[in-house]
Amino acid sequence: MLLIVGETSDSSVESKDRPDTRLAASQLELIARVTAANPRCAVITNVGHAYDAAWESAAAAHLATWYPGEGFAAALAAVLAGDREPGGRMPVTIARTEADYPGYALQPAPDGKLAYSEGTRLGYRGVIAAGKTAHHTLGAGHGYAQFTWADATSTDGGVAITVTNTSDRAGADVVQVYRDTPEVTLVGFAKVHLAPGESQRVTVPLPRRRFMIWGEAGWQLLPAPLRVRVARNAEDAGHAVEINPTTLPATGL
Asked: How far apart are CA 181 and CA 198, in angstroms?
């Protein structure tokens, strides 16, 4: 069974604040009643922001579609039929509770001023910095095929790792690279499409700019040596690789 839920244009807009990240009460009730009647129900969400997914454990599967536009019907049918791989990854972090989001409890002072003291620790950075584990962190997700990774190394302009499709169908995987200094930051990624049993050496370019931070003296390059993680998402321990930011190309953002 398939159940498609989502939001209307007046409940998912940038022009007004939201009291929370939950779906509409009517949608939550629908999910609860349908999954109770058929636990093998797959819930498909058509939502354009991070949303509470506490109901997910009652469903057999959860497919996030992120407002795909006019091609939604054909694309969804192809994915559900197995003709196409659901190869996307989480573009945002879904926290386990509302209180885990950085700045959730932030309120203006009596004089109306609001101090944004969290700095760059927003989204996945803030959740991880607070020692929290997300419900779905940045970069999380998977398709139908299964993959193994091996032999992560540094290259002249980034990092490389061997990706192998160990399943009996074609699929796509996303190699992500994170630095953990001074906070967790996605610094690069590369998507690879592989046939069944195929292996490929995947290189992720890393521009020097991704390893610079703003300080009193302006933009400063993080000192070498620096360890990065070749990982499946922001919270994955992945494969550690040591790099020297000074040798990375100066081009790119």
From this structure: 34
Going from the C-alpha of 227 to that of each of 143, 181, 211, the distances in angstroms are: 29, 9, 11
Q: So where are the chain's domains?
A: 2-80, 147-247
Residue 8 has pLDDT above 80, yes or no: no
Q: Strand, helix or coil at 25?
A: helix
H/E segment holding residue 5: strand 2-6
Q: What is the pTM of this model?
A: 0.91
Structure tokens at 234: 């922001």
- For 149-169, how does the pLDDT look when each residue is reduced to its tens digit (9 = 90+)? 999 999 999 999 999 999 999
Reduced to 3 states (helix: H, G, I; strand: E, B; else coil), residue 48 is: coil
Domain 2-80: what homologous superfamily?
A: Glycoside hydrolase family 3 C-terminal domain (3.40.50.1700)
Could you give the CA distance from residue 4 to residue 20 in angstroms, rounded to a whole number? 21
CATH classification of 147-247, choosing from 3.40.980.10, 3.40.250.10, 3.40.50.720, 2.60.40.10? Answer: 2.60.40.10
d(CA 211, CA 245): 7
What 3-state DSSP class applies to 54? helix
